[in-house]
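Forum > Structural Biology > Help requests

Title: Can anyone predict the 3D structure of Trehalose-6-phosphate synthase?

Hi all, first post here. I have the sequence for Trehalose-6-phosphate synthase but no way to get a structure on my laptop. I'd be grateful if someone could post the structure tokens.
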Amino acid sequence: MSADARLVVISNRVAVPKARGAAGAQGGLAGALHSALKDRSGLWFGWSGEESESGRTGNVSTQTSDGVTTATIDLSERDVEEYYNGYANSTLWPLFHYRLDLAQYERETGKGYERVNERFAELVSPLIEEDDLVWVHDYHLVPLGERLRSRGLKNRIGFFLHIPWPATRLFVSLPYHERLVRTMLHYDLIGFQTKEWLDSFLHYCRTELGAEVDEETGSVTLDGRTTTARAYPIGIDWDHFSALGETKDAWEAEQRLATSTRDRTAMIGVDRLDYSKGLPERLDGISRFFDKNPERTRDLVFVQIAPPSREDVDSYQAIRATLEQKAGQINGARSEVDLVPVRYVNRGYSHSELFGFFRASKIGLVTPLRDGMNLVAKEYIAAQDPEDPGVLILSRFAGAAAQMEDALLVNPHSPDDLAHAIKTALDMPRDERKARYEKLIATVRDDNVQDWTKTFLEDLDRVVEY
Ligand code: ADQ
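Reply #1:
Sure, ran it for you. Structure tokens for Trehalose-6-phosphate synthase below:
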């Protein structure tokens, strides 16, 4: 492959240019990939997010903007139900986030998942040229590499998993788990967010598949074929995000929050409304803080921004109701005419506005029960005033915790632990805040998304030809 080989990215959803203003609400993936594609005049293939009659789902719609070509397909209603809401988001997502209690196993959705992966392979393979580097993303498309190989593709194909890889004991509860992982071994390079998820994967390959695993290099050999698995922690687009601090939107958002909280400390949470993000547990921790420190009710305002996601999946409707109830309880017990301790906002904001909200908040609360990485933790740090930075409280179960040990690391399941961290953060002297910030900002700035892409693609380039 030459240094300027074209990059083909394949992911479940594609942020088409006209919708890119809403990239934040689509998760960390959108912004990350756009920068990589821009540098390599790439092609981005995936689902448009639209449903249409099955007869029209073979159409590929392409558009080029800003040097990036996007090619999207529609899915039928049944595909969306079985592949997206079903197998991806009701089976793999909960299982990979250690929520066996929420994972559903249905034969039909499993078949739908395979069918849509096959459709992706059929429609994207004519668009792939001989020297292209192909990079497949995330749990929706685990078997895609194998499907592309069966169509004769000889390109380098990499795969990156944005979410955790569960411990072997948990993973084996997935029916046909072997089949799924065997398809993965058709990729040349498999990336995970952290060493912990990588180690779980290698452990599975060795103990369940009997593969030959070299822990040092990450090479996994099975049936005469070798693939490489490594950890590549994703970062934020530092240049882009830090520049948002100069925008009018960021400044106005900062003023809005600062003015409305006046002499109280604002503490902020920003998450997709998802049970993996630990939102009810977070409210329990805040409630415990107020119970233990009633004299500090007037010191703290908690702002939780949580736009709904995956609303067609039952467990996502349930979490919304739980949160409304818990926020209502805290406010019912503690509000005064001039004070509402918890502000719970069910909508998304632009990244500029989030920058301003982060900067106006002296505590950032990021407490997922399990998270592949968590970019909000990094964005919060990136938005701080270096002379008077806020404190990040971070779950030790977020992938980000491995790089961000200078945050206040907490067990998100423990209300006492959360309450204690909130008190520590409120009382932390400026010198300590600055010392922690300086270490945190170094990793947020240096281990950024450009670096992540570069390292992954250089490694993909280097792995032995298929
Ligand atoms: P997500 O689960 O979506 O991503 P995260 O990494 O936190 O989680 O990224 C969320 C992105 O959406 C951030 O850029 C954030 O600013 C934005 N966002 C969140 N709430 C928002 C709101 N209310 N309004 C606007 N924007 C909002 C998955 C994995 C993560 C992994 C990423 C990237 O689950 O573990 O870090 O992919 O690999």
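The two ends are 12 Å apart (CA to CA). The longest helix spans residues 314-334.
Shout if anything looks off.
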